[in-house]
Amino acid sequence: MKILVPIKRVADPANANKVKVDDDATKVTSEGLEWVMNPFDEWSLEAALRLTENAAEKARVGEIVVVSITPGEGDTDHIREALGKGAERGIVVPAGTDEQLDASVVAKILAAVVKKEEPDVVLMGKQAADGDSAVAGTKLAELLEWPVVNYATNIATSDEGKTFEVKRELDIGVQTLKVEGPVVFTSSDRILRPDSIKNGVTPDDFEYADLGDLNSRLSNLKNIMAARKKPIDTMTLDDLGVELGVGTEYVKFTLPQGRSGSAEFVETVDELVQKLQTEAKVL
Amino acid sequence: MKQRRYLFEQDEHAQLRAEMRKFARNAIAPHAHEWEEAGIFPRALYAEAAEAGMLGLGYPEALGGSGGDFSHVLVAAEEIVLEGKSVGTCVGLGSHGIALPPIVNFGSDAQKERFVRPVLEGKKIAALGITEPGGGSDVAGLRTKAVRDGDHYVVNGSKTFITSGTRADFVTTAVRTGGEGHGGISLLVIEADTPGFSVGKKLAKTGWWASDTAELVFEDCRVPVANLIGQENAGFVAIMMNFVSERLMLAAQCVAIAELAYRETVAYARERRAFGKTLTGFQVTRHKLAEMSTRIAAARALTGECVARSLAGENDAGLAAMAKNTATDACSWVCDQAVQIHGGYGYMREYVVERLYRDARLYPIGGGTREIMNEIIAKTESY
């Protein structure tokens, strides 16, 4: 089974307080930000790894190609990170600036990559931790005329990705779908539960370790070093026949109001209610 | 705050740091205080550390290691300290770092399979036993005796201050198999289930609480000759070879501890208010912090230089001793200042700097005292 895993680099959500907007408030500036792999994409990467391995024997049985569309020269740090975790190959698409890469452009680029790579599955994050638009997966499926299953919590195949049984958790209960590949999946965090992936190769009684707060498995130095030798191809927008053209125009960004950091103690509940009404004006 | 790294670091060090940071944040930090107070961390953590690739660092892949050299071990340990925030857990997990090298360097293939591999897999715990109740740095004078009797050595004596000693599955033990002096010393791997081996007591220490430390007793303990590492009476060299890397490791731990104390203090000083402004609003605090970071940078520079030289094949015992003393002093001073800036909270057990202050006191003593370091420096400078 061959899986394409798109990876976006986002400003570390743990340091969201460092985000700034530029002077005319039309874009978020990336100055001084630390980049990490979009956590939602990390879940998908982990799911893809589980779909393409015999976990009991620690053997890879399929292929994962990670693709990252990165502004400017094409930063490959997070592709390397994914290769260290077990993915086989990387593709970097250097393209424009963050503002020029809205979901529709991203979907067009990914569709062009899919046509070149012909994967059985595209497995991606349900959204990016920065823009939160949560539409790139669906748009991609539409361009490809493939089925899409969003927010998957369980993915099972017993025929190497020809058909899948997929579960999604909805407000009204758990929905189970059968879908034929090729297909686009976006994943929910529940995809990381120890029994969420069945690939017909890893024995059914194999227990994945609980990842705790991790978004994907860790890679050791051996794998980090091995990843340095794995190929990363560059595909330009020209190669892919895609033109930048933003469908979304951002009018204004406003940062959330900063906290003053000062605290005031009150003696009684009445005093609290009164201050909330007259000073904080939140009641 | 600027994130400073060692000059020798390459791309892979940065990636390794990132992975170890995640491991420490996820597996250690949430329990750090609890484990330090309990004086032990769960044995299961060894398997987790192995899976995360920490235990195998610096060991060949053929033995189940994840490759790399001393520089990788050192940056991984730094991240474990910085993000796990439990020095005791870090040093407990790392006790194999002094117990295994003699086996890797001088042991037979069979011994490596028996002892090294299961430790790197997190299935067994290894400790090193050199120091005795009657003497520490005077290795050539050690008195635990091993007398050959057929296929066994009969060992009598005791060892103390043994890191991971209460639950080690085996102890790489320095014993006297020959006459007086350094020419009569051998290394034996003594397994914990050997009749005649016992853990005397778990020792209560100033710091390093999460790391168990024990006194070990050998009474007519019969150890198979197959457990002799290298040649009989040639153990002294193996022990000495260990010392340079152990000292650099300790120096690097000092850099990491000081860095953590500094970061905790900067964060505290930015928040804590007095007389209408934050502590960082006072020049005296800013200057103190500036001096803390200066001393850390200096200790990091010397430690890093020494590591780079050591990796290039230059075995400079004098410089390693200088690095250890420099880093030790920086760490002790920085932790003391950290407590001072924290004021009353710095004296409270729930604050990380209080613990680091206690942890720091080990370093001018362990792995060779500062006085022994000065002797080594004096000797290598040939006064």
Describe the structure.
The complex is a heterodimer of chains A (283) and B (383). In chain A, strands 1, 8, 9, 10, 11, 12, 13, 14, 15 and 16 form a ten-stranded mixed sheet that branches. A two-stranded antiparallel ribbon of chain A has the order 2-5. A two-stranded antiparallel ribbon of chain A has the order 3-4. Chain A has one domain: Rossmann fold. The mean pLDDT of chain A is 90. In chain A, a hairpin with a 4-residue loop joins strand 6 (53-54) and strand 7. Chain A has helices at residues 39-51, 77-85, 103-117, 136-144, 221-227, 237-240, 269-278, and strands at 2-6, 9-11, 20-21, 28-29, 35-37, 53-54, 59-60, 63-70, 89-94, 121-125, 148-156, 163-170, 173-180, 183-187, 197-198, 232-234. Chain A has seven helices and 16 strands. Chain A is globular and about 65 Å long. With 383 residues, chain B is of the alpha+beta class. Chain B folds into three domains: 11-94, Orthogonal Bundle (Butyryl-Coa Dehydrogenase, subunit A, domain 1), CATH 1.10.540; 126-233, Butyryl-CoA Dehydrogenase, subunit A, domain 2 (Beta Barrel), CATH 2.40.110.10; 237-380, Butyryl-CoA Dehydrogenase, subunit A, domain 3 (Up-down Bundle). Chain B has 13 helices and ten strands. Chain B has helices spanning 11-28, 32-38, 44-51, 70-84, 87-93, 96-99, 101-106, 109-120, 235-271, 283-311, 317-342, 352-360, 370-380; strands spanning 126-129, 145-149, 152-163, 170-176, 185-191, 197-202, 213-224, 228-229, 273-274, 277-278. In chain B, strand 2 (145-149) and strand 3 (152-163) form a beta hairpin. The radius of gyration of chain B is 21 Å and the shape is globular. The interface between A and B is medium-sized, with 18 and 23 residues.
